[in-house]
Design goal:
glycoprotein, 5-stranded mixed sheet, ligand-gated monoatomic ion channel activity, 6-stranded mixed sheet, D-Maltodextrin-Binding Protein, domain 2, signal, transmembrane helix, ligand-gated ion channel, alpha/beta
Length: 725
């Protein structure tokens, strides 16, 4: 449109209030230079308007041309407000210059142009052209030179401009807010990437407008339910709507690409509601409200009259029940940390380990010898004393030491596990729900509580709960009183309400049972409202934002209150838990037992092959019994072992008879004294033989053979003495 028509257009827009806040006006270049043509009146009616115009580089030639133009324009148009040539004027100047260059190149002549008319007809199709004119046109389109407006070049019948300025009308001036270039697109600088300057929008606002407004530009009347029991979701304070539902709605509305003005109206007098939630939703259908914002559950019967947004809370219905400590402390509580199979298995390994150590140590260690009853007692005492690491017996065999080290490690693990489990039983409460499912409630005929003014009675009836067993409550405090006094066995309610309740009474109650699926809380709008999809998309975006997490923390609190179920109750330790340890200690004990038997048989193999008088199995049984009961000398010999060594030396050398025996043999001089000498020698030898032998050799055949050999040696010495005399 022309500049004068455009000026009139913006005057009318301003009169209609369309040059104020939340409006955006963007003009193409055809109107951007209206400010140069019309002057300050145009600036007054176009505040905040954005426009674009080609960017003209300020050169020396342009400055000289501008001075000449001003001088001539003032002489020809006195009183005009135009102070410099517009970009359109520069384009016109360059176009005439290009036409002149094209005419010179084609040597254009007026006589070459022939006009054909038909009886005065004005039909343009009857106008003819000459070949020279066509050549002139072609040359003009190919003209390329540096003009006053910049590089002059025509492409696709359009004059090209490589750069554009973004103009913002502020006050009585035109501000350059940025540029558009092929290299950097929209930028604050024509030669580099930079942020745009501050833009003042219509109405003087620096915040970018949302783009468009609601039809009829009216304020929405929002219905808000009355919820005195759970005021955390929605409430009115001094005429102002507050709560989780209101905060989420306003946060979503702020992110919409347009402005939504709302006026909240309470559906009640602050304490008592005017009707049920279904009545409130139906008021939207009757167009008494433009929307309903609150803890409105999305239900199929309600969706017949309104459109719901996507839910903004956790959905579902669960049961709330009391919890109690199921573990009773009795006189036998100390047995509960371990199961029966673990007690029996541990005891069996105690006895087995004691037997292995006794078997290995019996032949070499006097602490493990003695009467059968004493040895049996040693086995039990030694094995069970390892439980408190109080065993006193000295271990001299390396195989026994290996068995004992492995067993002590197992005992340490079992002991620490037992201590930890017993401490947990005695000090930690093992809380379990008093009711696990609704079938149990129905079977016992218990009462069920629910939230007043909700859809839950219909759900409970479908779950086969007798209507006479239902009791309605209004607040978390009433929930607590009813459950603690046993007035009801369970409370059935939506998960958001139960979470608010547990944020106050977490220690004594828990949510259990299956989750009955419902769609959660949503906002209700009239059917077909354009706000419904926009609010739904906003909810999806806001649900993943950190602000939503902060609002939920404000609603439910920071206290963590996990569900208490059977999986959280610690059970007794089982044999399977220590199966690996028992396999290790059993294998090491059995291996040590086998190695000890093999080594013992190998060291006494000459005894196994010496006696062939008995049958096979009796011979082997006797030899094994002999080897087991016959002791070996340990590394440090005791007094019995030293005495045995002296006897062996006498047996090996008959000349090593004590001196008093030799002296008595030498005292006799005639044959008459020989009987006396013989008797004396016999007595001396009998005294020598009467010395006690070590206990380890009481049953040894080798000891008796040594004494007989000693007697035979004494008789031989006496015969030699008689011959010499």
């Amino acid at each position: 449109m022309s500049h004068l028509l455009a000026f009139k257009f913006f005057q009318l827009a301003k009169d209609e209030g369309m040059m104020g806040q939340d409006f955006v006006w963007i003009t193409a270049y055809g109107l951007t230079d209206i400010f140069d043509v019309v002057g300050s009146p145009a600036l007054d009616v176009m505040q905040g308007v954005l426009g674009v115009k080609p960017h003209v580089q300020d050169t020396v030639e342009l400055q000289n041309f501008t001075r000449r133009w001003r001088k001539k324009h003032r002489l020809e148009n006195p009183g005009t407000s135009l102070s410099e040539p517009t970009v359109s004027g520069l384009y016109a100047y360059d176009t005439i210059w290009a036409l002149a260059l094209a005419a010179e190149e084609t040597r254009y002549n007026d006589s070459n142009f022939v006009s054909v008319t038909n009886n005065g007809s004005t039909d343009f199709e009857r106008i003819g052209t000459s070949k020279a004119a066509e050549k002139l046109r072609g040359t003009l389109l190919k003209t390329n030179f540096q003009g006053m407006s910049g590089k002059f070049q025509i492409q696709d019948m359009q004059l090209l401009s490589s750069k554009y300025e973004i103009i913002n009308i502020v006050g009585q001036e035109k501000r350059v807010a940025g540029f558009w270039t092929p290299e950097f697109s929209i930028s604050g600088n024509s030669s580099s990437m930079a942020e745009l300057g501050t833009i003042i929008w219509p109405g003087g606002n620096k915040t970018p407008p949302r783009g468009w407004m609601l039809p009829m530009n009216k304020t929405l009347k929002i219905g808000v339910p009355v919820k005195p029991g759970f005021a955390e979701f929605v409430k009115f304070e001094n005429g102002i709507a507050k709560g989780f539902c209101i905060d989420v709605f306003e946060a979503v509305v702020r992110e919409l690409p347009y402005n939504v003005s709302c006026n909240y109206s309470e559906f009640g007098d602050g304490k008592v509601s005017k009707g049920t939630y279904d009545d409130l939703v139906y008021r939207v259908y009757l167009k008494e409200y433009d929307a309903v914002v609150g803890d409105i559950t999305i239900l199929a019967n309600r969706s017949k009259y309104v459109d719901f947004t996507l839910p903004y809370t956790e959905s579902g219905v669960r049961m709330l029940v009391p919890v109690r400590d199921q573990r009773q402390k009795t006189a036998w509580t100390f047995l509960k940390p371990l199961t029966t199979d673990l007690w029996l298995g541990t005891g069996a390994f105690f006895i087995f380990t004691g037997f292995v150590v006794w078997f290995i140590e019996h032949r070499t260690n006097k602490d493990f010898r003695g009467p059968p009853a004493s040895q049996i007692g040693s086995v039990f005492y030694f094995s069970f004393s390892t439980l408190v690491f109080a065993h006193k017996e000295r271990i001299v065999n390396n195989l026994s030491r290996i068995v004992l080290v492995v067993w002590l490690f197992v005992v340490l693990i079992v002991q620490q596990s037992y201590t930890a489990s017993l401490s947990s039983i005695l000090t930690v409460e093992q809380l379990q729900p008093t009711v696990t499912n609704l079938e149990e409630v129905i079977r016992k005929g218990s009462y069920v509580g629910y939230l007043n003014d909700s859809f839950l009675p219909g759900l409970l009836k479908r779950l086969k709960i007798d209507e006479s067993k239902m009791i309605a409550f209004d607040s978390p405090a009433e929930y607590n009183e009813a459950l603690s006094t046993g007035k009801v066995a369970v409370i059935v309610d939506e998960i958001p309400y139960l979470k608010v309740f547990l944020s106050r009474y977490c220690q004594n109650y828990t949510m259990i049972g299956p989750t009955y699926k419902f769609d959660g809380f949503g906002y209700a709008f009239p059917r077909g409202s354009p706000l419904t999809p926009d609010i739904s998309r906003g909810i999806l975006k806001f649900a993943s934002d950190s602000k939503m997490v902060e609002l939920q923390k404000t609603l439910y609190g920071d206290m963590s209150c996990p569900d208490k179920d059977d999986s959280q109750i610690s059970s007794s330790l089982t044999l399977h838990s220590f199966q690996g340890l028992f396999i290790i200690t059993g294998a090491s004990s059995m291996l040590a037992l086998i190695l000890h038997a093999v080594i013992t048989v190998y060291n006494n193999q000459h005894d196994l092959s010496s006696d062939n008088s008995l049958t096979s199995w009796r011979r082997w049984l006797a030899i094994i019994s002999k080897l087991f009961h016959e002791g070996d000398s340990p590394n440090t010999p005791d007094k019995d072992e030293l005495a045995m060594a002296n006897v062996d030396s006498i047996i090996e050398s008959p000349l090593s008879i004590p001196n008093h025996v030799i002296e008595r043999l030498d005292s006799g001089t005639d044959t008459g004294s020989l009987p006396e000498v013989e008797g004396t020698a016999d007595r001396d030898l009998s005294v020598q033989d009467a010395e006690p032998t070590p206990s380890a050799y009481v049953h040894s055949e080798r000891g008796h053979n040594g004494v007989a050999s000693l007697s035979r040696s004494g008789s031989s010495i006496r015969r030699r003495q008689r011959i010499m005399e």
